[in-house]
Amino acid sequence: MNEQYGFLAQNFRQTATCLALSLASTLIAGCGAADEPLASTSGNSKPDQPELISGEPAQRGQFPSTVGINDDCTAAKVGPRSFLTAAHCVALGRPSQRMAAPENYPPNGGLRDAYLPGKRLLVYWGVEANDGEKAEFVIARTSIHPSWWACPSCTDPIVHSGAVDIAVIELAEDTPQIAEARVELSNITTGTQVVKVGWGCEERTNVNASELHLGRLKLASAAIIPVSEIGQYDSRMSDEQVAAIGESYLITTGHAKDEKSASLCLGDSGGPLYLPDESDLRVVGVNSNYSFKTPEDDTDLGGVSSVDWHTRTSLGAGGGIGEWLQALKVNTVGG
Prior knowledge:
Layout: E1 3-4, E2 7-8, H1 38-41, E3 56-57, E4 66-69, E5 73-77, E6 82-85, H2 87-90, E7 120-124, E8 134-144, H3 157-161, E9 167-171, E10 182-184, E11 193-198, E12 218-225, H4 239-248, E13 249-253, E14 272-274, E15 282-291, E16 307-312, H5 321-327, E17 332-333
Parallel strand pairs: 10-15, 10-17
Antiparallel strand pairs: 1-2, 3-12, 4-5, 4-7, 5-6, 6-9, 7-8, 8-9, 11-12, 11-14, 12-13, 13-16, 14-15, 15-16
């Protein structure tokens, strides 16, 4: 983890860990998938490649608006210069529990130095990091949803202050070489078929974060499940807190809950959750967080999530997410 301004950049939770500050980008696996889930019909896994967490490498041309950024997160192009990602990918770390936040914290609007205007953003847009389809672009503006810093000292901003884990990076130039998706503003309901994608790690989530490097784009079919599933894995959360999370987040099944499903891994944060139609790229969520089984339920957690969390993009979602995205003039549809 990074240490900035005397504070530790830490995970949001111990038992339901956020995908890790400055890390994000690769989901993989199908829960409630269609008759022919993408995870079993697409990609080109090879016996000598690292194990995926129940997903498949993407083939060229699949969900091509998905990009890796700065070797630590995933994003989606949602405008000629706009890229959608998670707030925790671009934000400063929060004070450790041993330190009080100083007056006027956080500086620079809460942005990490690497995401300030004028900095250069490394973007991967192929299917593998070594395929040459990458470049650096100057950042014009990075916008974090205002709820993210409503409580600067909250160690878990999502649960404790209702924070929305979403951000938009605007570049100083167009990127015609990268396909563009649209952000879906209509409400997404339980049972909706989706596709998880990301550039993150391909092992258990408890890998060494400081050694993470984005490798390749991966995908998996899934379906939205009830937010109440979170409560099975974190007894510290009240029913009211779980319901509040459901207003701002979509939930999918992880590999620890269902071996036929996929789990997020470090580097998947900020990755888009798509509707399945590859001819009409529509983003309905952003990879944000996950929950693990509690110790009494499982003797070997293995660093694999039970349920994954994705920030909603719809109008009327908690925190006015869809309206905020409209104000930033990203490419939207529906609602």
